Amino acid sequence: SIILTAALLGHASAQGCYPAYITGASYSAGDIVSATTITETTSETHNYECRSAPNSLFCSQGAFAPNGIHSAEAWIKESAECMGTIEPTMSPTTYSPTTYSPTVDVGGCPDEY
After folding, report:
1. Nearest-CA neighbor of 26 among 88, 96, 94, 89?
2. pLDDT tens track for 66-96
3. What's the pTM value of the predicted model, to 2 decimals?
């Protein structure tokens, strides 16, 4: 049955493809992305869901990218190949450290007494 297949192999009913995985973007548990696997003769695109914590911490790391060698640690692959596109569930963001500037963030030095 389809339900048994889904339980054994991951999600059974792929719809359209979610936005492609972006290396360096920030992902959280439940985020869904797509990734393409290319061999000498075929090309398949599947949707992947970021696993729940604590494994979700790996989803943003390139070594755990969907369809990569360690992807199963961070991502759940849908068994059906996806086709076309669907609306995204989130917008990935690239990590950039915040900087603090006393002249911009708080208006500079206090007035002299």
Report:
1. 94
2. 988 899 999 999 989 998 776 655 666 666 6
3. 0.63
